[in-house]
Amino acid sequence: MSDIVTFGETMLRLTPPGDERLENAGEFEVRAAGAESNAAIAADRLGATATWVSKVPDSPLGRRVVNELRGHGIETDVVWSQQGRQGTYYHERAGSPRGTNVIYDRGNTAISSAEAREFDIDQVQNARVFYTTGITPALSSTLRETTASMLKAARQGGTTTAFDFNYRRKLWTPEEARETLTRLFPGIDVLLIAARDARTVLDFEGDPRQLAHQLGSQYDFTTVVVTRGSEGALAWHDNVVHDQAAYETDTVSPIGTGDAFSGAFIARRLHGDDVPKALEYAAATAALKRTIPGDVALLTKDEVDAVVADDGTTISR
Question: Taking 70 as the threshold, does the pLDDT of residue 231 lie above it?
């Protein structure tokens, strides 16, 4: 039995070397990349056993994804599909003013047809936490129903449900996301959301503290974590807001930072940490991830411990 079970698609990320343009690239660096598997790996590295659940094409590319995730130490429980393809995305790195560009190629993927009945629901119900993100229901109408069913089953089994809102404008509009994701809210215990998404997608107003209070009071969440980029994060729990500053970091790759934060926060709560301490570890893990190429937080708990010990206090009000 795993402490945390995550559900979602993991793609193959293709990145040209250096700041090369995609249209001129002669080679690509290839890595597995997915929000839910990223979070599972971060949680595992912070001391929580993790399993990633998905539907994957029975193809060389599908096996490439699964083998890489297994190499990171997490368990994988996949439905091998004879239909649908392996999702990919292309990542073009660049500084200002060009900026980084991401191009998704994830139409007709194997996971888009995934139904709850295909998975081992006992595994979800025996876990301590079930985790998924707003990316998954954005991929197909089938996955909208599947995500809702998985959350419901987890709740029925007494499993805590955690959900990263994780809005992606290249996948759907704010209106589509709001209509779908708010319907999932009754099945969620712990919500993680960026302040910008609470404003842009949910039409909430106010500073991050006000956003957390509004979300916590309007919906029946146990905990609401609001991230705010370089300003850190805060969490609403038991009607108290705990404020955590961001740690200083030299950014090598920002992609996957939010996933690392989420995985670390959940892992430390499972370990028994209170919300302020879990926030410290999540912020430290996110800072370390920004120093690491790729989407995955390849770090150790000792490294996170060192960052937490060196600096960082959480203010509760």
Answer: yes
